[in-house]
Design goal:
By secondary structure, the protein is of the alpha/beta class. About 45% of the residues lie in helices and about 20% in strands. It has a single domain (about 5-210), classed as P-loop containing nucleotide triphosphate hydrolases (Rossmann fold). It contains eight helices and nine strands. Helix 1 packs across helix 7 (about 170-185). The structure holds guanosine-5'-monophosphate (5GP).
């Protein structure tokens, strides 16, 4: 039996740098991970390409995807829909890749409900002040949107206890290696290795038969 990959949920306040951390993780370990590309109704930011950062769709298209059960989960976040297309996630998990869903907290909770074996990571900047600075320096949002995102961050902070791990993104490289170490440990969980346990058990039984 081939080992299935781990469904990983990675959340963090908008501006926590989780996108950069995930990109670097994929760059360092391209054979281990696959990044799910979400669908969204928000407009592309400068530099974003359809099919790379997101599949940019209309509200009607998004609602069609919901109706046809093409999304593993979806949520509304600051006035826009965001959702995870089902097919890619299922294919990559079957292929043994650890699939990263970079999603917000409502989606994370839905995933945990549907897939209790999913691994939930929360990535945080070292402080709230640092978060505000990163959002302002990114320069991609208006001050109103930054305000809304900080307000949302406060609300989200009350949901962190639902996650399995809290990782601080201070130095990018350290954060990437920490995430990779957590996932490597998860692969060694007995509950994720039952087929190996059964194999060795059967082999051992074979020995005693021959006694
Ligand atoms: P942004 O507009 O900054 O790209 O994303 C806003 C928030 O939506 C982020 O917290 C991001 O992780 C989340 N998000 C992106 N894709 C999805 C998705 O497919 N489902 C859910 N629930 N959240 C998503």
């Amino acid at each position: 039996m081939k080992k299935k990959g781990i469904l990983m949920v990675v959340s963090g306040f908008s501006g926590a740098g989780k996108g950069t951390v995930m990109k670097e993780l994929l760059k360092r370990y391209p054979d281990s991970y696959a990044l799910s590309v979400s669908a969204t109704t928000r407009s592309p930011r400068t530099g974003e390409t359809d099919g790379v950062e997101y599949f940019f769709v209309t509200t009607e298209e998004f609602e069609q995807m919901i109706a046809k059960d093409r999304l593993v989960e979806y949520a509304k976040y600051v006035d826009n829909y965001y959702g995870t297309p089902r097919t890619y996630v299922e294919e990559q998990l079957e292929a043994g890749k650890d699939v990263i869903l970079e999603i917000e907290i409502q989606g994370a909770l839905k995933i945990k409900e549907k897939f209790p074996e999913a691994l939930l990571l929360f990535i945080s900047p070292p402080s709230a002040e640092e978060l505000r600075k990163r959002l302002v320096n990114r320069g991609t949002e208006t001050l109103d949107v930054i305000e809304a995102r900080l307000k949302r961050a406060r609300e989200e902070s009350f949901g962190i206890e639902n996650y399995d791990y809290f990782v601080v993104n201070d130095k990018l490289s350290d954060c990437v290696e920490e995430v990779h170490a957590i996932v490597s440990c998860e692969h060694r969980r007995v509950s994720r290795n039952i087929y190996l346990v059964n194999n060795i058990r059967e082999e051992l039984s074979g020995f005693s038969k021959g006694e």
